[in-house]
Design goal:
92 residues; mainly alpha; 4 helices
Length: 92
């Protein structure tokens, strides 16, 4: 994992059983801390989830239907513009 200075904090409550499990796994995996262990796991999973949602594969006929619908589309309404702005603000 890249060493980047921590400048943000995430707080969460977990059961004592979960905490013990994470602590034990972090020790067994050789991590310096439980925080490093959990951070590594979240980073790995987050990247995988984001990659899964960044693209899609569709059949040719479905793609042709999509392009046809785009060609026939009218100007976006205010609700669509708000949704697009929100998605952009959230990094999508």
């Amino acid at each position: 994992m890249k060493m980047i200075a921590a400048n943000a904090r995430i707080e969460m409550r977990v059961s004592s059983e979960f905490k013990k499990l994470a602590e034990r796994a972090s020790i067994l995996s050789g991590e310096r801390s439980t925080t490093d262990y959990i951070t590594r796991l979240v980073e790995q999973d987050a990247k995988k989830v984001i990659l899964q949602h960044q693209s899609m594969t569709v059949e040719n006929d479905m793609f042709d239907q999509f392009i046809s619908a785009c060609d026939q589309a009218t100007a976006p309404n205010k609700a669509l513009e708000r949704a697009a702005n929100k998605a952009k603000m959230l990094g999508f």
